[in-house]
Design brief:
Largest sheet of chain B: 2 strands, antiparallel
Oligomer: heterodimer
Helix content of chain A: 25-40%
Strand order of the largest sheet of chain A: 5-6-7-3-8-9
Number of strands of chain B: 2
Order of helices and strands of chain A: HEEEHEHEHHHEHEHEEHEEEHEH
Number of strands of chain A: 13
Strand content of chain A: 25-35%
Structural class of chain B: mainly alpha
Shape of chain B: globular
Mean pLDDT of chain A: 91
Low-confidence stretches of chain B: 1-24
Distance between the termini of chain B: 25 Å
Largest interface: A-B, 27 and 19 residues
Helix content of chain B: 55-70%
Strand content of chain B: 5-15%
CATH superfamily of the largest domain in chain A: P-loop containing nucleotide triphosphate hydrolases
Distance between the termini of chain A: 24 Å
Shape of chain A: elongated
Radius of gyration of chain B: 18 Å
CATH topology of the largest domain in chain A: Rossmann fold
Structural class of chain A: alpha/beta
Number of helices of chain A: 11
Mean pLDDT of chain B: 77
Number of helices of chain B: 7
Radius of gyration of chain A: 23 Å
Number of domains of chain A: 2
């Protein structure tokens, strides 16, 4: 998406030419992303790809060494109150004061958020089965995640930023978190940005996806568009071949004899033309999962 | 054409006797690792549920939000699936009321059922040919199937 599109559709987050290093370790390199308002934005990448660093720029925990970050059109480092009061954040390590009791932490967090809805917070607490008297350090991993989810949701923010929200959680708690994401976007105009290495989760939830690799954006588009641009086809050639003939957009080919299976990127009709030019017959065509697209992109 | 008629009959008879599936109890299973786009999985499964009579004509589909929460998928994906189903004539939107399964008698719905059936027949034939059977053998086996005689008996009872 180019910038004029983003402004037209209304970006909630604009990141331009963002670079960041920690010592001589480069974490982000010239990242430009326009995250549209409304819908779910999935950030995928291996460990160390720069996902957490990028999200921390969005919440204003890191300043931009190079380039710029705007959230709601505002610089989150210069104006933390304006930005943070309108977003909900859940960090990967779920760092909350562990000595506090659940109700104390709720009251404490509430003081930071004018929009905090105490009735909704109480509903969430009951739904998540959290004992208000319990101290955080005594909670299970899943219950701690639910506390963090409650704290991120109770002021009904227009933007949710979740860093690996379901990593290391059991399916029940994972379901709570994914349900919260679905509900958030079902409410008109709200936006969720989340990073995940669980690609089936991203495939279920994301409208748009960015693949980060070694601090750079490798691929960024609507998930539908990405999926439609990858194809797996099996060709039958007239003669047995020792290796697969190259075709436009080939990422990978495997097979033997006269049957070869290709993973390709590009327009489907172009692919069919290429196969015809090689006088090959298309024996099978299959969809490609986001998982396979990711693996082939970062290979 | 014989087998098509039989199957259409079969679908109809289940449609009459089968229990209607109400809104949120709709059984749909999403396989995100499968590679098939999720909206397409939903479209195909609802078409199948309708064609096989597991969801009856006139039944209301769950709201977009309810199905999104049930399946844990993006509401836009459900909306896209419902739009495709509407275009295919399988469901219709009623203003302010919701999304309903259209009557099986409608020509579009019949077209859908035929397409579904043809896909199944193609699958069967591909497998049969791969196993080295000829077409007339396959047709003979179909006619000899116990399901056929069972179905014919039921038809006679209906007629008598």
């Amino acid at each position: 998406m180019d910038k004029s599109d983003a402004i037209f559709s209304g970006s909630i987050v604009e990141i331009e030419n963002l670079s960041r290093s920690f010592g001589d370790q480069r974490a982000l390199e010239n990242v430009t992303l326009y995250i549209p308002r409304g819908g779910v934005y999935g950030l995928i990448g291996k460990n160390g790809a720069g996902k957490t660093t990028l999200l921390k720029h969005i919440i204003g925990a890191h300043y931009a060494q190079r380039g710029s970050v705007r959230v709601f059109g505002i610089d989150p480092v210069a104006h933390p109150v304006e930005v943070l009061s309108r977003l909900g954040y859940m960090s990967e390590d779920r760092d909350v004061p562990r000595m506090m009791r659940v109700y104390e932490l709720m009251n404490y967090t509430r003081t930071f958020y004018p929009a905090w809805d105490p009735i909704y917070a109480e509903e969430l607490r009951e739904m998540f089965d959290l004992d208000p008297r319990q101290r955080i350090y005594g909670l299970s991993r899943g219950q701690t995640a639910r506390v963090c989810l409650l704290l991120a949701l109770a002021h009904r923010p227009e933007l949710l930023v979740f860093d690996e929200p379901s990593s290391g959680l059991d399916p029940v708690v994972r379901r709570d978190i994914l349900t919260a994401i679905v509900r958030t976007i079902a409410d008109e105009g709200r936006t969720v940005i989340f990073s995940s290495h669980l690609l089936d989760e991203v495939e279920r939830l994301a409208d748009r996806v960015a693949i980060l690799h070694q601090g750079k954006v490798l691929l960024e588009d609507r998930l539908d568009t990405i999926k439609e641009s990858f194809h797996r086809i099996t060709l039958r050639f007239e003669e047995p071949l020792n290796e697969a003939p190259t075709m436009v957009g080939t990422i990978d080919a495997s097979g033997s004899g006269n049957q070869w299976t290709y993973l390709c990127r590009g327009d489907r009709s172009q692919l069919i033309h290429a196969a015809q030019a090689l006088r090959a017959q298309i024996v099978q065509e299959a969809h490609v999962s986001l998982d396979e697209i990711f693996v082939s992109s970062v290979a | 054409m014989l087998c098509i008629n039989l199957l259409v009959h079969h679908y109809r008879s289940i449609g009459v006797t089968g229990t209607g599936v109400t809104g949120t109890g709709m059984q749909i299973h999403i396989q995100a690792h499968d590679g098939v786009p999720i909206y397409l999985q939903i479209v195909q499964q609802i078409k199948y549920l309708v064609a096989s009579g597991r969801i009856q004509a006139g039944a209301e589909l769950p709201s977009i939000r309810a199905l999104a929460e049930q399946l844990l998928v993006n509401p836009n994906t459900i909306a896209r699936a419902y739009r495709e189903l509407e275009t295919a004539g399988v469901v219709e939107k009623r203003r302010t009321a919701g999304t309903f399964v259209t009557g099986l008698g409608s020509p579009l719905a019949r077209k859908e059922r035929l397409k579904l059936l043809r896909d199944r027949i193609d699958q069967l034939l591909v497998e049969a040919f791969q196993m080295g059977f000829e077409l007339d053998e396959v047709l003979k086996f179909m006619q000899q199937s116990e399901l056929v005689s069972h179905h014919q008996k039921k038809e006679e009872q209906h007629d008598g």
